[in-house]
Amino acid sequence: MRPIASKPVACFAFALVAVCARAAGPTSSDLDAIRGADRTTEFALAIEPRKFEFPQDHGPHPQFRHEWWYVTGNLDSTRGERFGFELTFFRIALAPPGGVGSGRGGAGGAGADGRDAVGAGAGAGTGSGTGAAKGVSAWRTRQVYLAHFAITDVARHEFRFAHRLSRDALGLAGAQAQPLRVWLDDWMFGAPADTNGSADKTARPVSPTTAQGWTLHAQDQGYELTLELQPLLQPVLNGEQGLSRKASERGAASYYYSIPRVAVRGKLVRDGVSSDVQGLAWLDREWGSGSLGENQQGWDWFALQLQDGSSFMFYALRNRDGTRDQHSAGTWVDAAGRVQALSTGQVMIDVSDHWVSPRGGRYPSRWRVRVPAVGLDVEARPVLANQELGTKPRYWEGAVDVSGTREGHDTSGRGYVELVGYAE
Amino acid sequence: MPILWAASIRHLLRHPAQLVLALVGLSVGVGTIIAVDIATASAGRAFQLSSQAVNGAATHEIAGGPQGVDERLYVDLRGGLSREAGGLGLRPALAPVVEGYVTIGERSMQLIGIDPLADPELNSGGADVQPTAGDPTRWFTQPGSVVMAASTARQLGLSVNQWFDVDVDGKTYRALLIGTLAGDEAHANAGYDSLVLTDIAQAQEWLETQGRLSRIDVRVPDGSAGEAAAARLRARLPASVRLEPAQGRTQQSVDMTAAFTTNLQAMSMLALLVSTLLIYGAVSFAVVQRRRIIGILRALGATRGNVFTIVLTEAAVLGVVGAGLGLLLGVVIGRGLVQLVSQTINDLYFVVAVNETVLPATSVAKALLAGFGTALAGAWLPALEVAGSMPQLGLRRSVLETRAVTLARKLLITSGALAAASGIVALTSGRSLLAGFVALFLLLLSAATLTPAVLRVLARAAARVAGRFSPVARLVFGDVAASLSRTGVAVAALGMALAAMIGVSIMVESFRESLREWLARTLRADIYVTAPGPGAGRPERRIDPDLLTAMLATAGVVDHGMSRRVTLNLPHGPVPLDAVQLAHNGYANMALTVGDPRVTWPAFEKGDIVISEPLAYRNRLNLGDTLALPTDSGPHPFRIGGIYREYGNDRGTVLMSLPVYREYWHDDGVTAVGFYVARGQSQQQVMAEFRDLAKGKQSLFIRSNAQLRDLSMSIFERTFVITRVLYWLAAGVAAIGLVSALLAWELERSHELAILRSLGLTPGGAAVLIEGQTGFMGLVALLAAIPAGLLTAWLLIDVINRRAFGWRIDVHLSGAQFGNALLLAMAAAAVAGLYPARRVARAAIAADIREE
């Protein structure tokens, strides 16, 4: 889910670019206005439902300010060990697509890498355009990519995370729709890379892979994860036909779809030892240009996959006064793939335990989730208390075990929970 | 033995002038050393700090040829490193850097283009490059955005959100200061003061190095895992780039200046050496004045040890006080000197802005030790002498004078021995620069010891000759001959300073003439056009290609030669490469010192290189050897087809044919062009046309042949300003010594002079007598110094310059080279005589006689 302009997105900040400053309010640069800097176009806003088209919509939507590809999942190794993983790519535009090159980032994002030559007029030299003689630097960008990779190693009681940042330039990081591919350095999600490992996407020969059959690869902190992904469901549109409102402000919404059940299998290398793993993952896709509402503090996001084939997603937006925001919402997908939108009033969540982070901050860490409309009454427990990513700002995103009843029958499952806004 | 101490203190207090002059001499000597230390250390530190600020956190760097590294390499490394490592290898942190020099207002600044997202810890030495004001995303989205230290912005008169001009390679761009470095106070003096930070894209566009990186900073942890990661990285690199330790190049750059700073230090040692003699003079004089009382005390039972201790203790106190004063003086002189030193370093080596001076702790220790040691060494002989004399003999001055006469003979022998030793050291020490300086100091000591002996011989001869005409004249010269105990040391010091001065003058003059001849031979074109900007061999300095075409098509231009100057990083340090395409008959202008022009130049066009004397000397390279140069496709050996004379820089230069360069380095830039103008065509007019062409495009340096020569000469002159300052300081110490000694001597003779006055010597006559004596001494010192000065010049030119810089200089002699020495000798002598002459002329004769 990750509501829009989520602080983690906007503020996973760079030593340099405190984008929060940007996301928090209108463009601060009066100077730019005076100078007539190229603000000719603005970001597109998520205001009304749109028609989703796949596989194009798996790719980037550069006319929106931000966007993410979020894969979380639970894994079992052939050795009987249990793991959780998270691999997330964020695309953050620093300026709207405008001026030269905006055509490349057209709607649908087909083949677009979303990079526009912000610096088309760069060099601003009085020097006879000699700067233009050699042209715009390939490093010019208006977008940056951010990625998080985390592994929960239950047997070892270890949780490790890494984050990377890169500009959308020179193929260092980027996203494309056909075939789907999102990458940052050697972390990637989407169509398998070609054999030579070159990041030069223009030169890369690609197989005509569709939404079926993706791969995922990341490595850091002593863990290397390589998975093949097979969606078990069609994309599920959350909210109002995929339009997910997060606050009452205009544009404080996103386009949001999920693939709640994705079969994964592959290899996890830990300390040089490779294990075969398999499990179930969840893909979340969201893009928009708005930010959180004034009063919103953070959110709790639940993605639970039950044994019987049903899936539950809910995001509880928290107001600063501790109450749940009325825009909180969720989606129920039954075993047959039937989708049911859930409003905030249909979902009851009670916190029964807390975990205090050694870095500071107190997170809820056990929940009773009740959805009478679908007969759900389950408890979710973290598989490891500490699954906090020490990024800036910090957030908790971890694997959970689920047990309880569904329409009176015992059920169990696994899932992922994200807790944002509990720590700076 | 308190009475001894009381006598000592009372004596010193009653003779303050003596004390003050000795102190002044010593503190100037110590101060000079400190000043040179401060100047060189400050420049070195400023450079090191800015290097650290630029790549402090990096452990290694990936460096390429003069054009740097292809940016695709960086992309490939980021994408492929960990995959290759098989999952668990350590991933080295990488950060791309594009750097160059820009000018803001009058100030040269280093432009550092970084990708702040690449690796937070590698960004500019871990500096928090967070702009402190405005919208931080402007770093990426606002073309022209830069960040600098707040203190730098203040110095440039810039405030945040202000637009200003940046000049790069003669082109002007608009820049916007979007913020200052966070935590700025810590950066104020940490090497950030001449840095401008900008996005890597912006840096590429301004420097016109699209597609290239200056280097890739690399950080691996310490220990074996880090080494393994570095080794894996190295294995992935193409042949055209190298993985090097990060601080290696900084060190090499600092090392480049080693010869230069060694020379400065040697000059400062000279001042101290002179002051040693001065202390010797002052202490012996103080002892001499007290012979009577010391004789009495010895007769009353004071032991030799007591007397020896007293004299040395006095000297030690003098030394410590002198060192302390010298330290203070050194700080003052050092502040001034640092500007001269950094100017020279900027002219010759690298761009550095020295904003604060540092006083190294070792220099303080050195100053104290030098002051103390100098004073003790100077006092040793007089102390031994007074302690060793028989009590009753100590009462008689004649004994001392007799002894001084014997000493003069001994000195003559010593002088010969020192000169011989100097010669042997110079001729047998191979390439050692230190040995060269040892030989120089031995020679100067020889000059010092020779002077009193010569003085005595000449004074006696003069007394005999002049005595035939005037008894007063005999008195004048006879007195000088008989007063060696008082004046000998001062004269020796003066002789040494004069020898050094003559030697340095000849060396500088010869160098200047050699340079002038070389320039006259090499610079043949009528108009020279150079891409502007700070820093020699910077790749961003290139003439706009369209502009070049237009200039070549200008009416009146009949021929041209052009060159591309870049810097190659060879294993032993950065070396400039001059790729030249000479004008018609241009080869005749190149002075080959090794190689047959008929063979060398055709081979040069086919790919041989020609290297300059310093490069050949330093690396022991000769005709037919090969030198491996880092080309764009990896190291390639080039055959050395000849060695040529060049004074452009002391690291040496590689000369290559421009087409050959372009074949091995994919760089079509041109740094400088020499245009030949048709006969009858006005050079001024062609230059004016060039200026019109360049207007609004690139502010090129357009100079006539004469202007370029003048410029070269003025850089040369600037380089030797420091040398001059230092030798005048040494000479100043000597002059003070002479004044001090003569003053003491003349004052002591006031009784004698009073008798002469009472016998009818007029006040004017007395003044003439005194001035005559001091003038004579000055002249003699000069005479004695001339042969030593010539030898010193030889040492400086053929031994020290050769060893320090590797080039040969033709000796040029002229009368003018002795002018300064003559001036110094006469001025010192005249000043020394001034006060005694006045005093004697005015003194109440009766009182002076009665004193007895």
Give a structural overview.
The complex is a heterodimer of chains A (424) and B (852). Chain A has 424 residues and is mainly beta. Chain A has one domain (7-35, 42-121, 136-420): Beta Barrel (AttH-like fold). In chain A, 5% of the residues lie in helices and 46% in strands. Chain A has 4 helices and 23 strands. The longest helix of chain A has 6 residues, at 30-35. Residues 1-40, 99-133 and 195-211 of chain A have low confidence and may be disordered. By secondary structure, chain B is of the alpha+beta class. Chain B is 61% helix and 15% strand. Chain B folds into 4 domains: 1-53 and 256-395, no CATH class; 57-246, no CATH class; 429-524 and 705-852, no CATH class; 532-699, no CATH class. In chain B, the strands form 3 sheets. In chain B, strands 12, 13, 14, 15, 16, 17, 18, 19, 20 and 21 form a 10-stranded mixed beta sheet that branches. Chain B has a 9-stranded mixed beta sheet with strand order 6-7-5-8-4-3-10-1-11, with helices on both faces. Chain B has a two-stranded antiparallel sheet with strand order 2-9. Mean pLDDT of chain B is 80; it is low at 84-88. In chain B, helix 14 packs antiparallel against helix 15, helix 15 runs antiparallel to helix 25 (763-805) and helix 25 (763-805) packs antiparallel against helix 26 (816-842). The chains are: A mainly beta (424), B alpha+beta (852). At the A-B interface, helix 4, strand 4 and strand 8 of A face helix 3, helix 4, strand 7 and helix 7 of B.
Report the top-level CATH class of chain A. Mainly Beta
* Mean pLDDT rating of chain A: 80
Global shape of chain B? elongated
Number of helices of chain B: 27
Give the CA-CA distance, first to last residue of chain B.
29 Å
Continuous helix count of chain A: 4
Count of extended strands of chain B: 21
Instruction: Give me the secondary-structure category of chain A.
Output: mainly beta
Query: Which segments of chain B are poorly predicted (pLDDT under 50) over 5 or more consecutive residues?
Result: 84-88
Tell me the β content of chain B.
5-15%
According to CATH, the fold-level topology of chain A is AttH-like fold
CATH homology superfamily name of chain A = AttH-like domain
- Give the proportion of residues in helices of chain A: under 10%
Largest interface: A-B, 62 and 56 residues
- CATH architecture classification name of chain A: Beta Barrel
Oligomeric form of this entry?
A: heterodimer
Shape of chain A: globular
Radius of gyration of chain A: 21 Å
Work out the count of structural domains of chain A: 1
Instruction: Give a quick account of the main beta sheet of chain A: strands, pairing sense, barrel closure.
Output: 13 strands, antiparallel
Low-confidence stretches of chain A: 1-40, 99-133, 195-211
